[in-house]
């Protein structure tokens, strides 16, 4: 226990410290494995004091998941200085890097750690919606006018990317670059395909050669 | 309570009846809302007798989810008499029909009713893998040789379809046919795109006109 940890922190700083420890531990643990006892011990406070800052374990978990989601959104923010396809690639690179660093926690979140918790589900839905909305804005900045089906496709692509990365973690049958190619190609294909309708498939077939 | 329900059933028949009632109730309820009391009452047996057949509530839930997944897989089985694209369309039509009939339960399952339950997660993973594997076989029957990235893409497409349908249920901004077009176009686009690599996007662009 360092002296820094023993320092008396303001309530805001203590809350932030506990949440940050939770986010950090979620890298290598599933949400279910996350122990409030271990986090309190790491912060040098009692379990009871942790519950003074967070009314319940579930409430603490929610704040940890909210902070994790905000971290993911920030780390994958597209760089406005790049063109849309390069910004997409850099963003996906950051996304895959994030999942590589946080495999257990990420997988547990995507695979339903929310259980029947409505507030937790709302955090997941908001996160996916924020990522999808950003994707739509990136495409529109690239000059595409997106029909309603393409907006649905943008949401679907977020789930596609989540699933592909999780599958890739468990079965790394292709290299990282091939995974990035797959994810980065899929988005414009799905958006353009949604705009082109059923003709899209036949237009693409010659490209396979 | 009908006389049929009062009938003494064999253990196998009673288990099957209870699971079928669970599957049926899951249409309009989330897994969390599913009440073993209500199911026992509907079957005309005591709560205690239900626990005689299933060791725990969680165990009963698992069997209900397993049966629900088997039902979904069976109902969306591709018709071998049709060509691959027609079989895909019919399968997607059945899938969307299934979700329309079971919105609450379906959404709760996709959105993480598994919680931290490892066995439940395994059922979900197996179901998605079965659907993805069937998709790969359908494409290969259509004459495509799929590279490893395309097999990852097939898994991703299952998640894409789940997410699009759930988004569409909550925000029905396009009609059912447009949704089916989107889902049915996405799969060959993603598989062909995975095979074509980065050149796929530029090959498709002229199709948008």
Q: How would you summarize what this structure contains?
A:
The first copy, chain A, has 209 residues and is mainly α. Helix content of chain A is 73%, strand content 0%. The termini of chain A are far apart.
Secondary structure topology:
The structure is a homodimer of 209-residue chains.
Chain A (H helix, E strand, L loop, with lengths): L2 H4 L4 H15 L10 H8 L3 H7 L3 H19 L8 H18 L1 H8 L7 H24 L6 H23 L5 H21 L2 H6 L5
Task: Walk me through the structure.
- 2 copies of one chain form a homodimer.
- Chain A is mostly helical and 209 residues long.
- The first copy, chain A, has 11 helices and no strands.
- Chain A is elongated, with a radius of gyration of 20 Å.
- The first copy, chain A, is 73% helix and 0% strand.
List keywords for this structure.
mainly alpha; homodimer; 11 helices; 73% helix; 209 residues
| Strand element count of chain A | 0
Low-pLDDT parts of chain A are: none
Structure annotation, total helices of chain A: 11
CA-atom Rg of chain A in angstroms: 20 Å
The greatest interface between two protein chains, and residues involved on each side, is: A-B, 61 and 61 residues
Q: Shape of chain A, please? A: elongated
Nearest-integer average pLDDT of chain A:
87
Strand content of chain A: under 5%
Strand and helix order of chain A: HHHHHHHHHHH
Q: What's the assembly state of these chains? A: homodimer
């Amino acid at each position: 226990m360092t002296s820094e940890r023993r320092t008396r922190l303001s309530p805001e700083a203590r809350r932030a410290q506990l949440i940050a420890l939770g986010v950090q531990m979620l890298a290598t643990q599933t949400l279910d494995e996350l122990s409030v006892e271990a986090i309190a011990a790491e912060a040098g406070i009692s379990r009871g004091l942790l519950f003074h800052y967070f009314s319940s374990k579930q409430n603490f978990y929610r704040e940890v998941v909210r902070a994790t989601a905000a971290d993911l959104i920030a780390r994958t923010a597209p760089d406005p200085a790049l063109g849309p396809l390069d910004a997409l690639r850099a963003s996906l690179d950051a996304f895959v890097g994030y999942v590589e660093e946080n495999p257990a926690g990420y997988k547990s979140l995507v695979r339903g750690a929310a259980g029947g918790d409505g507030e937790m589900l709302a955090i997941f839905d908001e996160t996916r919606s924020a990522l999808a909305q950003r994707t739509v804005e990136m495409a529109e900045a690239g000059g595409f006018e997106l029909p309603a089906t393409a907006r649905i496709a943008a949401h679907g692509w977020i789930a596609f990317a989540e699933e592909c990365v999780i599958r890739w973690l468990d079965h790394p049958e292709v290299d990282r670059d091939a995974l990035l190619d797959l994810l980065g190609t899929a988005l414009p294909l799905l958006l353009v395909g949604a705009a082109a309708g059923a003709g899209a498939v036949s237009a693409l077939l010659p490209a396979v050669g």
